Amino acid sequence: MFSSLKNLFSKSGQGIGLEIAPERINIVQLQKKGKGQTYKLNTFITEEVPEGIFEEGQIIDSPALAELIMDTLQEHKITAKKVATAVPMRESIIRIIPIPAELDDQELREMVLNHEAGLYLPYPREEVDLDYQKLGFFEDEDGIEKVQVLLVATRKEVTDTYIEIVQQAGLDVDVLEINSFSLIRTIREQLRQFGPQEATVLVDIEFESTEIAIIVDGVPQFSRTVPIGTFQLQSALSRAMNLPTKRDTEMLQGMTIPNTPVDGLRTGATGINPGMAALLRVLGELADELRRSIDFYLNQSGDLEVAQLLLAGPGGGIGQLDEFFTNRLSLPTEQIDPVSALSLETEDEIPAVVRPSLGIALGLGLREI
Q: Listing from the earlier edge strand, what are the strands of the sheet with 128-139?
């Protein structure tokens, strides 16, 4: 196989979805119910990742991470060996490139992998793993028919690290993809309500960063990572309240963002406690970065308009965060609900504040049905 981005655009078999994040691992196993698009959550396990395994979003202790995964599987008597997992979007390059439509599949592959890819990579071709997928046909400004190709590239040292960790945990890598693709798969039915001239902004608020993906017709057209996540939000809150900073960001799940006028945020005249004021300042910085990303994309994209922001990740479920971004950016904002999106049958009720954080893990689980 030409790429370690294993089975990125192909179907898979029965196994587990494994999300690896700096603060936790999530393990999911789904079962399809009946003939419709409904699913049962057979297994959902979340385990905290101890300090010292990640540093600034990078894995620095692979053996310890592999041992954590293996011990978690054994503790919960998970016997499946095939696994779908994902690397962070910030570690990947995602581009849509035009290719002459008259090429056959072999010629297309040769052109994409050995010629065109080098034009879009900041690294030498031999240092990256590549995969691609044909999208739709179109005519360029000269009336020449071309095909759009989605190109995905990740440095080999990154893909090799994830593959080795999973193998050291006693598992077989069935799928290795980009985490934003997993998230898009989970909410694909929700994305289908938008037309070809409507862009959706997927805002995945993770532990140490927020990954922004602008999606049109279910395909990511633009991506950016901002170094603001739940850890930075809670750290600002803790410092303002003279509390010790902790990796556990559970305190954020109990927060509700007040409906504070934008002018009040800018002047500091919010009439709220110092902790919440500090939290709102960091959220304001994140909103400003979102605005810059959206403006940059729209300035290059002709007639497109942004139809909605979708909040995901561990920070996406903070109470009334959707209203905060709606007010701050004047754009409709919604917190994703993967449980409802997948008509997911669960044995235990999953709180609304937790649901946006399940998007990636459930998307990986879908690859293994």
A: 92-100, 145-155, 128-139
